[in-house]
Amino acid sequence: HDCIIGNKCLIVSQCGFSGHVVLGDHVITHGQVGIAGHISIGSYSVIKAKSGVSHSCPEKSDLFGYPAKNTREYNKNLAVLNKLTKQHGVYKQ
Q: Which of 1, 20, 30, 88 is catalytic?
């Protein structure tokens, strides 16, 4: 599909790249990552397992989730959500 893969990239099993995806050098894609068409992934980026990338990202990005977001931002949002659900009795252990 006219994808361009940079030097020394690591692509783990069951990843899917739509047409015209460009991976920079040293990009790591964990298992079952999906990348939509016409997207560029900057060099030295990491895309965590089962993430869905729907937008281009700059160098040294660390992405996770569906749709893929900055991993640190994703984890902060998840921590706040867990705290809120515990406070309101929604979450039971």
A: 1
